[in-house]
């Protein structure tokens, strides 16, 4: 099962989601990430955070949804709609869910405040990914309606 973490720039949140998912996922489940308007580079703070968390960073790069290596089965948008961001709408017959997270790339203030914004985004995504992977995945692969409901619930209820 292929999961696409999608945002606009593909430099922070979607990269954090992709790397964390791949670090935790069972065999047969794989994440990719992309952006509708990719920045062309992964934010250095995202890579440093992943490395501190013991998550491999080799091969992660900012890319367009036009350049996906696989067709996704599930698309999870991570733009924070409440922050006025417009989430890209992935075109295609896939299961879609929205897990809004504030973009740490736009954080300002002291180094500690910016670091905290990255950690907050990572912790939210990790908690949601852990909840996703705790679901009865074998059963839900056969029940897409229930899988969508569960993914939407995770996006609403977890921090």
UniProtKB/TrEMBL annotation:
One Pfam family cited in the UniProt record for this chain: LMWPc
Domain Phosphotyrosine protein phosphatase I, first and last residues per copy: 1-135
Domain of life: Bacteria
Keywords: Arsenical resistance
InterPro entries reported for this sequence: Ptyr_pPase, Ptyr_pPase_sf
Record-linked SMART domains: LMWPc
Leader sequence residues: none
Listed GO biological process terms: response to arsenic-containing substance
PANTHER family the record matches: ARSENATE REDUCTASE
Protein name: ArsC family transcriptional regulator
Organism: Candidatus Tenderia electrophaga
Lineage, uppermost ranks: Bacteria, Pseudomonadati, Pseudomonadota, Gammaproteobacteria, Candidatus Tenderiales
């Amino acid at each position: 099962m292929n999961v696409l973490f999608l945002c606009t720039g593909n430099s922070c949140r979607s990269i954090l989601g992709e790397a964390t998912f791949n670090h935790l996922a069972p065999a047969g489940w794989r994440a990719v990430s992309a952006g509708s308007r990719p920045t062309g580079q992964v934010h250095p703070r995202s890579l440093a955070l992943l490395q501190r968390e013991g998550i491999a960073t080799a091969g992660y790069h900012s890319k367009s949804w036009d350049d996906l290596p696989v067709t996704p089965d599930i698309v999870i948008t991570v733009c924070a709609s409440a922050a006025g961001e417009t989430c890209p709408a992935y075109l295609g017959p896939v299961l879609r869910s929205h897990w809004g997270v504030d973009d740490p790339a736009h954080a300002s203030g002291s180094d500690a405040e910016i670091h905290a914004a990255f950690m907050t985004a990572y912790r939210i995504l990790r908690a949601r990914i852990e909840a996703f992977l705790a679901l009865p995945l074998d059963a839900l692969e056969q029940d897409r309606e229930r899988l969508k409901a569960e993914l939407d619930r995770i996006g609403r209820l977890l921090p």
